[in-house]
Amino acid sequence: MSLLSVAGLTIRYDDAIAVNGLSFAIEKGESVGLVGESGSGKSQTALAILGLLPAQADVSGDIRFEKTALLGASERALDSVRAQRLAIVFQDPAQALNPFVRIGQQLRRILLQHGLAEGAQAQARVIDMLRRVGLSDPERQYRAYPHQLSGGMRQRAMIASALITEPELLIADEPTTALDVTVQAQILELLEDIRKDTALLLITHDLGVVAGHCERMLVLKQGELVEQGATRDVFARPQHEHTARLLAAAPRLDRTDIPTTTTGAELLTIKGASVSYRETGHARLQAVRDVDLTIRAGETVALVGESGSGKSSLARAVLGLVPLQSGRVAFCGTALEGLAQDRATAVRRGMQLVFQDPVGSLNPQMRVANIVAEPLLVHEPDASADTRQQQVIAILEKTGLGEEFLERYPHELSGGEAQRVAIARALILKPKVLVCDEAVAALDGTVREQILALLHEVQIDSGLSIVFITHDLSVVRGISHRVLVMYMGALVELADNNALFEQPRHPYTRALLAAVPVPDPERAGGKATLAGEVPSALAPPSGCTFHPRCPHARDICKTEIPEQRTINSTTVACHRAEEI
Amino acid sequence: MLKYALLRLLGAIPTLLLVIVLAFLMVHAAPGGPFDDERVLSAEIEANIAAAYHLDEPLHRQFYRYFAGLLQGDLGPSYRYRDHTVSELIGTAFPISLKLGTMAMLLAVVFGVAAGSFAALRRNTLPDRSVMAFAMTGISIPVFVIAPVLVLLLAVKLQWLPAGWSGNEGAARFLLPVIALALPQVAYIARLTRASMIDVLASDFVRTARAQGLGTTAIVRYHALKPAMLPVLSYMGPAIAAILTGSVVVEEIFGIPGLGQFFVRAALNRDYTLVLGIVIFYATLVILLNLVVDILYGAIDPRIRQR
Ligand SMILES: Nc1ncnc2c1ncn2[C@@H]1O[C@H](COP(=O)(O)OP(=O)(O)O)[C@@H](O)[C@H]1O
Ligand code: SF4
Ligand SMILES: [Mg+2]
User: Fold this and answer.
1) Contact flag A113-B218 (C-beta cutoff 8 Å)
2) Residue B19 burial (CB < 10 Å; 0-12/13-18/19+)?
């Protein structure tokens, strides 16, 4: 008998079917991946198994945990299965853990509730569990509140809370989506190591994660199961065209030769740029330190780094949205510092920005036509309404949106369409540089590919330069000519695309590359070669800020800031770049 | 934490000063003087009395004199009860009001939170609707209507409780006034609790707790109650002020010799110093209690405590 069997699971809401006739089984101890794009019904399935669907959901079908029927069971009956036999790890530990209760108490409560331990013994067991999930100083973390831990530590605590009862099945719903790639690799490895005989249902949109961690996989499309099989087989020979499409859209690190589009002319020159923010008290947070970067006409430069590494701050300072603490920026041969406000604004018109959250960055009360026309109203107030209308239609067409979109409101757009509108709005002033700040991070694989293709087209058409900010190295591989890797506000490596991916010189770049989950079961990616997490920017480590996590660190790294050096046209800031 | 409390305490000083100045000016701007309604006195005696109480000095001198006394904790003599100082009068009357107010507050919080949580857990069922209908009524009827109705119903008709204050002994005589005073607050706190409890029960961490098989009782007790209490705690400041004002009415209606009653009498008698003293005393009390609420807030919410 299967550990978990789901048969004909259907979940309806008033206006939609979230899951339609889903059937699958999970055997004892195996690891199964459940993949699909956002909204395909993955989380709904997980919630249905645990009996946690909202009251307005209309559920039918059959879910059995061995012999026990879960669907339609009373809360009391469910409570005897939950935690003890069946546990879940949610996506965002910042929300999923109670911010008002100490971590240790939250875990201890589970043991007490199910009568698995008492008193001092319960506490000892919790501390032991915290230790096993890799939290250093578990006695202290026992008394910590969730907000006192970093994202990665919180997810470790969440995993501890799920595994402390030694359940037979663990469901993990996008357990690493909210985390940086090096931490993601740590957490996935931890799950693998620690679960022992516990079966795993790993829900993810990331095929790389499935390739590295699941024996079997299920593919969902709009609530229906379109394919299932051994992970190797599905990756090698996808049977359903939706699977094939997902696989094709999964970012890879393979070599792709990106045609040169640059004229070689220097367009934007950044010299010694530093940005700092004032924190509460007298502390200053150094977000960007002393970065040099030149962007040529018509090229794409990626800014890569984990959250908080200073990518967006650098871009915002260049765009004049935050002040530069020191350094110089020249655009089209005009130095921007010391320029009167209105002159600087006029020059900066040539640089436009696209944000991550496509729907949130558009004014919900405006129609698409007005959203796209708005920059024109500001910069060319004298143009006639007709001319404006013409320009709006032309630019929308260029971004792949027909005239039927003119009258729509942002909430009537899909994520991809909304991002096209945001790009159209940015392009209508015919900028020379487009800064895309995590512009595809919130999009599904296939939609992301379309948006990237659109950007590429525009670039070939109009010779646009693109600054592409992302935390995801795998997205960069297929689109950028050069890559700047940042760590704690500083440049660690700046190289041509192929040089960076094939011969990374900085230990941090290497670790980032190793941590990328590769969508290929034969080639293990997603390795956790880095311990720990990025330190607080308020108290950066001395010397090379990377030294506490660097496997190559020597004494000199603790005291001296490494100078930038150039090796075969790669700029790298590491004392040992030549030897390693 | 201590530093935060001290800073808040310092921050309260300007507010308090403003209250003192405003109260002083308002009381002195009121028409008539404290000795107006006594039998007609010769101009000479009137001048003597005025001089004895410094009423003949210019206003700023009077204020200066009053403020200097205030700094030493001296609220001056009462104009009406001539043998007593204002401080003494407050000292005798306040304990009764304090008892009344504390009991009303406790009742309001205990019953309000219980009713609100109960309603939230049975959301949109008949029990929930009844509790909320009751709460709506409780909020919309003012204390000076509730009090007589309660007296009529519970004391006169059913004869369960004593109606008046004098002639009755022990805790029983507190019951009706306390209920009358607490009722609107019970209602308001019930509504607050219900709304915030519903929010908290829908949060991700409660879903986690459900996934951990904790069951409703444990979830409310160990996970939901604390965060659901935050809006109630924020309301404690206004609630304290409302109970203070309410006690003025309730003491008058039930004939309770508390500070509220003194206040009303003092105002009618133009007993300047007593009115002023009570206003300043109450203002200080409200400001201090608000400070305590703020500090408690920090104690419940660990994210605030950090700062
Ligand atoms: N409370 C709800 N009311 C109505 N529709 C919902 C609700 N929750 C989820 N859905 C819908 O169910 C579908 C599947 O959602 P979900 O399981 O969250 O997808 P995934 O986890 O694969 O991203 C989506 O179309 C979503 O809009
Ligand atoms: S300078 Fe030292 S610590 Fe920094 S990356 Fe190089 S080897 Fe590692
Ligand atoms: Mg989901």
Assistant:
1) yes
2) middle
